[in-house]
Hints:
The complex is a heterodimer of chains A (111) and B (115). Chain A has 111 residues and is an all-beta fold. Chain A has no helices and eleven strands.
Amino acid sequence: QKEVEQDPGPLSVPEGAIVSLNCTYSNSAFQYFMWYRQYSRKGPELLMYTYSSGNKEDGRFTAQVDKSSKYISLFIRDSQPSDSATYLCAMIKGGSEKLVFGKGTKLTVNP
Amino acid sequence: DSGVTQTPKHLITATGQRVTLRCSPRSGDLSVYWYQQSLDQGLQFLIQYYNGEERAKGNILERFSAQQFPDLHSELNLSSLELGDSALYFCASSPRPKLVTNEQYFGPGTRLTVT
């Protein structure tokens, strides 16, 4: 079993839809949680990060962490064609130097 | 633009060959991280250097090696290449030795194709 599981999709939604992206993890040592966005032929860029259970909001994006269920989510409201990208979840164990990534979910938002 | 540069953008080579990928970190950043991204394995951490010294190691094969030079640029050397080494190779940089969630910036990557 991989440490971090993420459904690769692809996911296709109409413009304006609410998008839900999810990851599960198996190791309770993970303490820091991130979402990266990666456009085609580009490097990943950090979207959001959090280290506690609960919700964190930034504009149209909300990151949610449920440590008891080992489950994290990213919600995108009012999705736009410019949100079309691959979204990667990533985690760090306490005291570690290593980012562990999910495989990424490819999202397409259709105009 | 993250400020991290990588060369070359694309590299096509044959099995058994050796290649060198280059990364220049953002101005002021002392840490360089190397990652491999393949369809099978996703994005995987390979190795980290901080101010010229190796700091952390991930899933890096023995055929691969890296170094960071006094001017802080880093090179990833891949030898005895196999078809399975075909992937995107990213470097990322950050200012500190310890990984902080919001301080790591990725370069545009080098696409390696082994034929």
